[in-house]
């Protein structure tokens, strides 16, 4: 193999390259930049990431990982959606991983991911400056309308100032039913909606840092998924942390922190339709600044597996605030598995408020607000309230229809 070198792809495009040369090395696309350096081989036809030199030969990119700079993207604040889309398309067509170097790449329209091919995007890290910047207040960042498996790691996707629409990561395509997606150590500031999904299941959210004016993550049918760690910060007056609905069977939420310095409605809101596996909230900190820490309701009279909330610090501040809330609904009778609320630290005027449950347990929780109440609604049956520590003037209000055991629930000052 005979190899030559050019400073940039632009220089190589303008050159007449001897036919004896079969490969070349560049050190950038339009300017020298190590993140855009590439190794190319001669070809008689165009290929992924290729260019044509002045003599008519095609030169095809042979790098094992592809960066936006290989496709002419710049990090000068201008709209780079065309080059960034070419980068995405190359990853889908070749199966090669995509690397987002520590620069800010701006886009004026959403990047599109479709089809069944997998895709991996990995940055240098959220603190190293790997970033996609949205230019419009109403646009999506990346739209996933396919059914491939996706891995997103170690980068930031930022909205334009004061966003009013769109989602930074949007899995709401009509054909989307991706299974097994991993999103890890990704940050978003400040989104309208951080992550939106209508069909993504068995996913992993790992230590995400999301800030949103509307909803940090809106997830439909997230069955068999794991949300672990991370920081979810709703900042709008009517904003929420995690909004979850549909089939949630097998969902586990493990020790995230969901709070904000501004008023918002809820940390976690679940509106369940069906569940074929246990739903677990384990550990973490949840605060509904003017409303509810965790609210779980149903929108259809269907059967559920067990629901467990344990080991968490949960607050629902403001007048009428609730730490944990199962609203009064005839549909709650459809929860045929056991509901367990145990070993939590609860901070609100209404520590726990439940109604419509059959087969449930509120046990060994610490109620830290003076006068905090455990409220049991008239449609509750077959339950147990025991071992809870009630703050000064705390009380249990039992209005249940029958068969509820109230054990020892000591007070403290």
Q: Which features characterize this protein?
A:
single chain; 413 residues; mainly beta; Pectate Lyase C-like; 2 domains; 19-stranded parallel β-sheet; 13-stranded parallel β-sheet; 2 helices; elongated; Pectin_lyas_fold; Right handed beta helix domain-containing protein; Pectin_lyase_fold/virulence
Written overview of the protein:
By secondary structure, the protein is mostly beta strands. The protein has two domains: 4-61, no CATH class; 87-406, Pectate Lyase C-like, CATH 2.160.20. Helices cover 5% and strands 44% of the residues. It has two helices and 40 strands. The strands form four sheets. It has a 19-stranded parallel β-sheet that branches. A 13-stranded parallel β-sheet has the order 6-9-12-15-17-19-22-25-28-31-34-37-40, covered by helices on one side. Strands 1-2-3-5-4 form a five-stranded mixed β-sheet. Helix 1 links the parallel strand 1 and strand 2. The longest helix has 14 residues, at 81-94. The chain starts with a strand and ends in a 7-residue tail after the last strand. It comes from Frigoriglobus tundricola. InterPro entries: Pectin_lyas_fold, Pectin_lyase_fold/virulence.
Task: Produce a short descriptive summary.
This is Right handed beta helix domain-containing protein. The protein has 413 residues and is mainly beta.
């Amino acid at each position: 193999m005979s190899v030559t070198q050019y400073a940039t792809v632009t220089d190589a495009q303008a050159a007449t390259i001897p036919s004896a040369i079969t490969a070349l090395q560049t050190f950038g696309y339009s300017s020298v930049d190590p993140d855009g350096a590439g190794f190319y081989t001669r070809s008689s036809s165009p290929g992924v990431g290729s260019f044509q030199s002045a003599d008519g030969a095609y030169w095809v990119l042979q790098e094992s990982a592809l960066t936006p700079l290989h496709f002419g993207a710049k990090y000068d604040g201008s709209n780079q959606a065309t080059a960034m889309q070419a980068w995405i398309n190359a990853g889908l067509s070749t199966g090669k991983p995509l690397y987002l170097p520590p620069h800010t790449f701006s886009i004026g329209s959403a990047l599109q991911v479709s089809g069944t091919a997998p895709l991996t995007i990995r940055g240098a890290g959220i603190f190293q400056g790997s970033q996609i910047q949205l230019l419009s207040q109403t646009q999506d960042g990346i739209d996933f309308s396919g059914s491939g498996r996706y891995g997103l790691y170690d980068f930031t996707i930022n909205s334009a100032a004061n966003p009013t629409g769109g989602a930074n990561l949007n899995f709401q395509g009509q054909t989307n039913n991706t299974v097994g997606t991993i999103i890890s150590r990704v940050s978003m500031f400040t989104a309208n909606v951080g992550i939106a999904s209508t069909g993504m299941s068995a996913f992993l959210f790992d230590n995400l840092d999301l800030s949103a004016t509307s909803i940090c993550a809106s997830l439909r049918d997230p069955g068999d998924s794991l949300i672990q760690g991370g920081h979810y910060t709703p900042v709008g007056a009517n904003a929420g942390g995690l909004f979850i609905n549909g089939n949630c069977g097998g969902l586990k939420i493990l020790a995230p922190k969901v709070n904000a310095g501004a008023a918002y409605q809820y940390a976690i809101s679940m509106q369940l339709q069906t569940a074929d596996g246990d739903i677990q909230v384990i550990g973490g900190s949840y605060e509904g600044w003017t409303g509810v820490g965790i609210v779980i309701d149903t929108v259809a009279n269907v059967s559920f597996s067990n629901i467990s909330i344990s080991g968490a610090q949960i607050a629902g501040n403001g007048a009428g605030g609730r730490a944990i809330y199962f609203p009064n609904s005839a549909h709650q009778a459809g929860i045929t598995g056991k509901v367990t609320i145990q070993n939590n630290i609860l901070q609100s005027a209404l520590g726990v408020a439940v109604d419509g449950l059959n087969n449930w347990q509120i046990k060994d929780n610490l109620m830290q607000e003076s006068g905090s109440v455990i409220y049991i609604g008239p449609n509750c049956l077959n339950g147990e309230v025991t071992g809870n520590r009630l703050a000064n003037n705390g009380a249990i209000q039992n209005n249940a229809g029958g068969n509820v055991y109230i054990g020892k629930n000591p007070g403290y000052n």
